[in-house]
Structure formats: structure tokens, C-alpha cells
Amino acid sequence: MTVVLVGIVVVCVGIFLALAIARRTPSSDDGVASFRKHLDALSPEARRQVIDRMQSPQIQPKRPTEPDDPGVRHGS
Amino acid sequence: MARDLAIDLGTANTLVYMKGRGIVLNEPSVIALNRQTGEVLATGHEAWNMIGRTPGYIVAVRPLRGGAITDFDVTERMIRLLLQRVGVSRFTRPKVVICVPSAITEVERRAVTDAARRAGAADAQLIEQPMAAAIGANLPIDEPVGNMVIDIGGGTSETAVISLGGIVALEAVRVGSFDIDNAIQNYVRREHGIAIGERTAEEIKVAIGSAAATPDEVEAEVSGRDLMMGLPKTVILTPEEIRYAIDDVVTQIVQSVVRCLAKAPPELAQDFLVRGMYLVGGGGLLRGLADRIERETQVPVRMSNMPLEAVVLGAGHCIENYDALKRMFMGQRR
Question: How much is the pTM?
């Protein structure tokens, strides 16, 4: 029984150490992949959805309706 | 479930972009308060209409000046009201990306994020306005080429060179279209002896203001209060007068663009001659400004398709791709 428990503890510690090491030493590929992902998210294709949403007539933002200021009349 | 938000907290206007929906709010950054009780009476357009026309117990204020918070409590209350209006409650706390001028101090940054968190945001991240503007103006900033964006807002003017998703060179001045309005107010007071309000000064700028001579110029009839007699008085202003009145402010903006060009690496500088610079922000709509910058820098200047919305659209794109674009946020770059 004790042997089994010790075995389980050893396996758990091993897994924990393996995970900790994997997290502490990112491979050089991670930086490349992360930067690529960053640039891909900035590509015009990725931005199209946001820009199109703005140009869609149903969801145009309400423009401020500024009343004419009686203080200024131009074209005189 | 709260929908995440992007906020362009500008000196002049506040725009809110909701994830998956687009721009849901576009209002002047103005709040009207009861001076005695501190109670909020109006925000946005309603408060803007009150500026300069309030009885003694009401004050209509812009809580941001030069892109920075001048009154923390009022700004927090304004942000809270804005968030409530777009559906944020104490049970739905969204992530928020806020656009701020690149030149703000660490203290000012903390003031903005604290105000947003206390107003109901679960997390508040900041992004520089010129970077957001470049994303929103759909410039090819993912490529290894020089992209130059000039963002002229109410209180700040910022010029940035962007390449490969990052800022290469940056120049910012705390001068914007409100300084142009102030210059007009001061000129009319000094040269014509009449006092005009800030809204009238803005109307003059929109009607006949220009940074360089343009065809079909007209004069404007302006009414104000005679400083000697205290009675209403009307004078005629010419476009030449207004150009003279605002020249100092326009010159400061143009010089900051020149300084940014001087900071750009030579490899990128040659790209500007081909691709030009992009003008965004409400201040960029001043007649003749693009021509004047082009004349003084010898670099083509192009107007963005959506100059007023570019910044919030850029921040909106960041909120749509939050994890992939985390490194765009101030204080997150590694």
C-alpha cells in the first residue's frame, strides 16, 4: 500500500516538474508563432470585419446633431 | 454575459465600440452637474447644449483636457454613466480597452484605468491613440513598411511612424482643436472687443477657419458681447483674420509632424514619399491643414475615410482580437 502511495506521489511530482520546466523555458518557436499571430491579427483581412461593420448602414453611429449657433452666420 | 468594449475617451468626443456590434455610442465628452449637490444632470449632447448657457447652480464641464483627466471623480461618473447606457451593470463587468494619448504620464494612465475599473470594468487596458488610429484607418501596419499617421484631437496632436505592428517614432504635443477655438476667442476679444463663447468660436472655425488659403472662401457675421458697453454686438470676420488668429497653433502641429519625420529611420522615410501620411481626428478636418502639412514637409498627405471613428475602430479591432493583440496594450509589451 505504502509503495503504491509513494509511486503515485513520485509520478505526480514528476508530472508537476515536467510542466513547470515546460512553462519556464519557452522554445524559440513560441516567439515566432506569437509574433506571426500578432501580425496576422493586424492584417487588412483580419480588420475587414470591423471596418465593414462600420460601413453597414444599419449600425452607423448617431452623429451629433448640433443646433446652429445663433452667434455665427456665414456667407455674408 | 457582458460584451467587451473599446472606448475612445477623447477631450472632445467619447466613442464606444461594443464587441460584435460596432460603434454604439458617439457623444461629446461633457457632463452637466448640479454645483450644490454634485448630482449629474446630463451627459453627452444634452450637456454639450448647456455649455455657456447654464444658470448659476449648473455647471457643464469637460472632465478631460489635453487628453488627460482633470477631474477624476467627474470622469469616473461620466464613464460609469456611459457604461450603463451601453448595458453594463454590476453583474455584467466587461473587459475594456481605452484609447489614450501616447504622451500621458504613469499617474494619468493609472487615473484612467482606475476610473474605468471603479466604473464597472472587469479589466481596463490602454492603447495609444495613434496606434489605434492606424489600425482603424486600415493602414498596412502588419508589413515592414513605414506608415505614418497624424491624429489631431481636441486636446492633443500625435504623429506616429508604425511598422510591423509597432511604433517606430512618435511625436506628441498637447495642442489640438480646442486650442484653435481658444485662439479664435482671444483674437475676437483683442481685435474686435467682443466676448464670444467656446461654442461660437468652434462655429467660426467650422464655418470659415482654415490653415491655408482655399477657394470659395466666405466671411462670417459673428455676434457676441461688447466688452466696453456690455451690449450685444455683431462684427464681420474674414478667413484671413482667422488664419492669422490660429497660425501659432497650426504651426505647433505642423512642427510636431516635421519632428516626427526627422526621427524616422531612413529606410522607412522613403516609404512616406510613396505612401504618404494619413490624417485622422476631428482637428484634421480643418480646411487647408492637409495642404499646409504637405507643403511644409514635401510628403503627400491623405485624409482617412473615417477620420472621427478611426481611433475607436482600431481599439474595437483590439477588443475583437484581445488575446492575439495583447502586446499592443500599454505596459504589456515584451
Answer: 0.84
